[in-house]
Amino acid sequence: MTNRVSKVLTGIALLTAVIAALGIAGAHAAGITLALGNAVSLAGLAACAVIAVAAVLIALSHTQRYRERTHAWRLREAALAMLCIVAIAALSQAVVILDYLCVALAPLSIETDLVRFDALLGFHWLDLYRWVSAHAELHRVLEFAYRSSIVQLIAVPFILATTRRHDDLAEFITLFAFALLVAVLVSTPFPAQSAFVHFGITDPHTASTVSHYDLLRSGQLRQFNLSESQGLVSLPSFHVMLALLLAYAVRHVRHVFPAAVVLNAAMIVSTPTQGGHYLADVIAGVGFGVLSIVVVRRWMAGPRTAATTGPRATHPT
């Protein structure tokens, strides 16, 4: 494992612990009961198993007898990717608790302002939703693109690790953490009800996926099951931010980058109709996604420059 990635993973682990502690304490103070649920419990056990497997692979890579074979098969890199995926999943769960507490603060909801802003740009969400729904093939393509985010979050660490783009991998994990926190911090003072709910859309996988929003704001949701968590951030769209980060992360992997650009461009296009986002959410997602890349890139430029003066840890694809 490269020193830089190990430092990033250590930092993410500490950040996750701090956010989880704050979230648990905040939930207790607010009188909200937290439960893991079966899905999260199983995911936790799976994460422990993955960490154990990764530890074995790393240990083998340092054993003289297996060093050449593990290097050729890139088993150490696979272990690194596993640890990064666990870090992403753990941080996401911790931030979910924080996000729910922020929604429960219930500042003035701004969805009416977002609809008005969209109209000024000539965009009418309901018209677009009806048009996409009337074109079944297009709807399936957009749904596939929207749901691809989970698969990409697993694939990108493996791609970057196995191609030994360790600097890019460290940057991607840092970007993910930064963007996730930015999305929650921005949405807290500017919450918005999903377009699905605002426009009365009750199709499967629409309003039902954001039903906790009003329950939290009204104080009716007093028990929160992590296995049933929902994405309640409207502005900025984290899906749009993530699409930019995923494409940016593989920019140096020439055979993957073009496909990533196409897929994530489709993800951005799918966000209004598949995620119930306003056009304003998409625009904000692009803005804050680019901002996240600029900030993290500049922040990590110093360590990266310093690293180039020592032995190279990465190899060209």
TrEMBL record:
Superkingdom classification of source: Bacteria
Residue intervals passing through the bilayer: 39-60, 80-106, 144-162, 169-190, 231-249, 256-272, 278-296
Keywords: Membrane, Transmembrane, Transmembrane helix
A Pfam family assignment: PAP2_3
Entries under InterPro entries matching the protein: Aur1/Ipt1 (IPR026841)
Inositolphosphotransferase Aur1/Ipt1 domain sequence ranges: 113-294
Protein's name according to its UniProt entry: Phosphatase PAP2 family protein
Species name: Burkholderia theae
Taxon lineage: Bacteria, Pseudomonadati, Pseudomonadota, Betaproteobacteria, Burkholderiales
